[in-house]
Amino acid sequence: MADIDTLPKQNPEIVPDHSILDCMNPATGEIIEKIPATTVEEIERKIITAREASHAWCRLTLRQRAKVMKKAQKALVARMDEIVEIVLDETGKTDFDGVIEMLTTLEIMRFNRKMAPRVLAPEVRPLGLLVKNKRGTVHYRPYGVVGAISPWNYPLIQPSILVVPALLAGNGVVLKPSEFTPLTALKMKEVYDDAGVPEGIFQVVIGAGDVGKTLVESQETDIIAFTGSVGVGRKIAVSCAEQLKPVILELGGKDPLIILKDANLKRAAGAAVWSGFHNAGQTCISVERVYVEEYVADEFIRLVNEMTQSIMAGHNRDSSDYGSMTTVPQFEKVKAQIEDAREKGAQIFSGEYSPSTGGHFLPPTVVTDADDTMAIMQQETFGPVIAISRVKDEEDAVEQANSMNFGLNASIFTRDKKKGRRLASRIQAGNIVINDVETNYLCVDVPFGGIKQSGIGRLHGIEGLRSFTQIQSIVEDRFGLKKELWWFPVSNGTKKLFRSLIKLLYG
User: Fold this and answer.
1) Is residue 308 domain-shared with residue 209, that is, in the same domain?
2) Which CATH number goes with the domain that contains 97?
3) What percent of the chain shows pLDDT beyond 70?
4) For the segment 164-179, what is each residue's pLDDT rounded down to a tens digit?
5) Is 141 helix (H, G, I), strand (E, B) or coil?
6) pLDDT band at residue 357, thresholds of 50, 70 and 90?
7) Pairing of the two strands 352-354 and 247-250
8) Inter-axis angle of helices 394-401 and 417-424, to 10 degrees?
């Protein structure tokens, strides 16, 4: 993930030039396009433009904003093939991974535009026993300008889950996509603009970490929403804390999968293989740590290895199950983790792959006999690798699952649903799936987010929509009496009345 820090002070002759971005296809190594980075002056100008546009945008009714978003949704469908092609070129995904990304994005748009008029509308709240002569309402007001920073692994989904609810809530949005995948974000803005999203309300800025830093530190952004690594998220949180600026953070994960001895092992193995390998393992909620009860461990590992043999990674977008990894640093990190595990005694099983010249391809890899001395069990992997560890029983499994500072997603497989729910209540993660993996992200009605070092705040669900609003309460007098009982002067009779009311109502 891009760092928001400025470049280190080095010899100017060897500092990379970030004024031009080379947009590269990671599967082929070919440069797709060269585009200029956004300057500091342009960033500030775009933020101001979004703020000015938000004044008229937030005065539209929620239903009017939802209608605009529906047009944008239909425009994405109409241009699906064009957009998916850009996603594939920038990320190295297979065609089906691109289609799934489009599907998830459209579901995010559908839910948010349908729900916004209901959940962001003013609410009348019942008031206490002593203030029945008052009327209380809760209102959800836009912040103003949202600074959104999204990662490279899902260049259409990840911006959408920030941009769509933020716009529907009445904000202007300035999006900074990853420097590895800017073309998808620019195409997204083009589609939105053509669909009738008002001019200026949605802006895109392009560049590396210094561009994100400018967006975070600008006095003109009112809230920052970031998806990415823990390290960068921590720096953003510190910067926003110094400004007393609210922040939403969806950060890293090291997601555990618990397999109990009564689980449907074939389904559990299939889930592990799909979650570990789809999108080349570059999913924040993909299964990375598998804890399987010793009693069924051998059979589970046999099924996983057998299924892995049928997985094909490669350049062919139509026939491969997954494609290239997207960035060189991540590619090298995953290779190093596998080698570290091998050196420390793990067994390594790899499936088939057909590497392409210049691409960052890794075969589907299963690591067994993994333990806590290995980097692959301690650090986020973000690659096509499943690490399996044997545990004594469910207590041991829960303890191991909770042993890290990450707490994003977790999965449990057991035929006993009551047991599954009971264990879920003990797992330290923001999101739990029972007898399935990752489907919760497509269930956009429920909130999504991490605990511990995996994040602050929630996206998806009504909580996600309201995350981009400031809550304002209004209490108004209903009858216009001459004075309230507690106003000066307070008579002895009033004092006695209040003592009696305390005993009657609360005693």
Assistant:
1) no
2) 3.40.605.10
3) 96
4) 999 999 999 999 999 9
5) strand
6) low
7) unpaired
8) 30
What's the mean pLDDT in 419-440? 97
Q: Assess if residue 318 is contained within a domain.
A: yes
Q: Reply yes or no on whether the pLDDT at 2 is more than 60.
A: no
Q: Which of 77, 53, 439, 401 is nearest to 257 (CA)?
A: 401
Asked if residue 286 and residue 187 are part of one domain, the reply reads: no
* 343 and 464 share one domain: no
**pLDDT tens readout for residues 330-347:** 999 999 999 999 999 999
How far apart CA 158 and CA 3 sit, in angstroms, is 17
23 is catalytic: no
d(CA 468, CA 143): 7
247-259: average pLDDT: 97
**How many percent of the chain have pLDDT more than 90?**
92
pLDDT in tens, 79-114: 999 999 999 999 999 999 999 999 999 999 999 999
pLDDT over 90 (residue 1): no
Q: Please give the C-alpha separations between residue 418 and each of 256, 258, 334, 425, in angstroms, as whole numbers.
A: 20, 15, 37, 11
Rounded CA separation 279/5 (Å): 28
Encoding tokens for residue 163? Answer: 């941009």
C-alpha–C-alpha distance, residues 3 and 210, integer Å: 8
Q: Is 59 within 8 Å of 68 (Cβ atoms)?
A: no
Q: Which of 250, 288, 293, 438 is catalytic?
A: 250
Closest CA to 444 of 429, 461, 419: 461
For residues 259 and 271, is the Cβ–Cβ distance under 8 A?
A: no
Tokens 């920052």 label which residue? 224
Kindly state whether residue 490 falls inside one of the protein's structural domains.
no
Phi/psi for 441 (5° steps) reads -70, -30
For 117-136, the DSSP string reads HHHTS-EEE---GGGTTEEE
Angle at CA of residue 51, ends 47 and 57, nearest 5°? 135
28 assigned to some structural domain: no
Residue with token string 């003592």: 499
Domain range for 62: 34-251+460-469
Residue 358 has what pLDDT? 64
Q: Is the pLDDT of residue 15 over 70?
A: no
Q: Dihedrals φ, ψ of 161, to 5°?
A: -70, -15
- Report d(CA 376, CA 369) in Å as an integer: 12
Average model confidence (pLDDT) for the chain? 94
**Residues 322 and 368 both lie in one domain:** yes
Decide if 107 is catalytic.
Answer: no
pLDDT at 355: 66
Q: Please pick, among 179, 284, 394, 438, the residue that the annotation labels catalytic.
A: 284
Pair of tokens at residue 477: 């007098």
* pLDDT at residue 159 greater than cutoff 60: yes
* Total structural domains within the chain: 2
Q: Are residues 418 and 435 in the same domain?
A: yes
Q: Is residue 493 part of a domain?
A: no
